[in-house]
Design the sequence.
């Protein structure tokens, strides 16, 4: 258990990729701090599972990271953090001239600004300890665009830039900063964008699945949450200490085109 004694905050970890990463870190002994929304009983069961796995604490802070005060509440409750995974994110699919400005603000706040705020609050301890890991869940959309996703693509390109900047700033403090860029992973975030994509493109559900989502991925398969989690876990290992400022694609070849 190589993460015994380490404390990890994973934002947006009550579901999907974040929960997968929390499970992988807990399985190696990390005390995990979950964040995100969901059914209280289901979250309690997850916390029980995670602390049984890790032999360490597992806690949940349901802070809304669209608000700076929510980020501050999360980081205050978490205490000294060794591993920070900025993962919380949301999507909205709409032509840009119909894109609701409040959706733009919300996506930039959650997918980008929250990562700046968690990082600035976590970094002093990492610098003092001489060890830290920051892992950002970016996206294939940090490298390439798709129509109707203006805010998401802008935020994800932004987090790729933030990753590189922090990597340079922390390089001499035993702390690495990297991002992982999945293609389509079958989670509620993807499932929930199907109705709006059907509307924006005038397609059926099957057409959206095959002609929009899987059309991007040469493998014609969704990426699995566990595959993303395994890479995040590797980035926490000492063998990964010189992997810094990287943007790792897990997209079945999408961005190779
Ligand atoms: P998901 O919808 O399954 O999970 C999102 C998590 O964020 C949940 O725990 C949710 O409660 C939490 N959350 C939502 N709004 C929040 C808020 N205001 N404050 C705090 N937490 C909030 O999504 P996912 O697919 O697992 O996505 C996780 C990350 O991976 C996102 O950043 C997403 O952009 C990125 N990503 C997903 C895919 C994909 O295909 N699913 C691909 C590339 C990147």
Sequence:
């Amino acid at each position: 258990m190589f993460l015994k004694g380490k404390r990890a905050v994973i934002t947006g970890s009550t579901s999907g990729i974040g929960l997968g990463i929390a499970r992988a870190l807990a399985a190696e002994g990390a005390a995990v701090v979950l964040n995100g929304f969901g059914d209280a009983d289901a979250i309690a069961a997850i916390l029980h599972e995670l602390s049984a796995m890790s032999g360490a604490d597992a806690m949940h802070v349901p802070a809304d990271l669209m608000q700076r005060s929510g980020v501050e509440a999360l980081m205050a409750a978490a205490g000294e953090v060794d591993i920070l995974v900025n993962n919380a994110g949301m999507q909205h699919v709409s032509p840009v001239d119909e894109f609701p400005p409040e959706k733009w603000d919300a996506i930039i706040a959650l997918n980008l600004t929250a990562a700046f705020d968690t990082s600035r609050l976590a970094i002093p301890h990492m610098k003092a300890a001489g060890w830290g890991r920051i892992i950002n869940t970016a996206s294939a959309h940090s490298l390439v665009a798709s129509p109707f996703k203006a805010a998401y693509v802008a935020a994800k390109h932004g987090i790729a830039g933030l990753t590189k900047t922090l990597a340079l700033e922390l390089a001499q403090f035993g702390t690495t900063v990297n991002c992982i860029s999945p293609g389509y992973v079958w989670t509620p975030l993807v499932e929930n964008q199907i109705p709006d994509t059907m509307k924006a493109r005038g397609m059926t559900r099957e057409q959206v699945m095959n002609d929009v989502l899987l059309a991007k991925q040469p493998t014609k398969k969704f990426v699995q949450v566990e595959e993303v989690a395994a890479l995040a876990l590797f980035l926490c290992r000492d063998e990964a200490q010189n992997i810094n400022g990287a943007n790792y694609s897990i997209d079945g070849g999408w961005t190779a085109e």
Notes: The chain has a mean pLDDT of 97. Strands lie at 7-10, 31-35, 58-61, 83-86, 132-137, 175-182, 247-250. The radius of gyration is 18 Å. The chain has one domain: 7-183+224-245.
